[in-house]
Amino acid sequence: MDATLVKQGYINSKEDEKKEVGVRYQKNGKIQTADPTRERGIKIFLVCFIVIGAISVYTMKMDWVQLFQGISQIPDALSKLVKIDFSALDITIHALFESIAVAILATIYSLVGGMFLAVFMARNITPFRFLSVLLSAIFTFLRAIPSIIWVLLVLVCVGFGSTAGVIGMCISSTAFFAKCFAQCFEEVSEDTMEALRAMGAGKIKIFFRAVLPSAFTSLLAWTSISFENNFAASAVLGTVGAGGIGYVVANSMTRYAYGQAIVAIIIILLFTYCMEIGFTALKERNK
Question: Which of 115, 129, 173, 180 has the fewest CB atoms lying closer than 10 Å?
Answer without folding.
Answer: 129
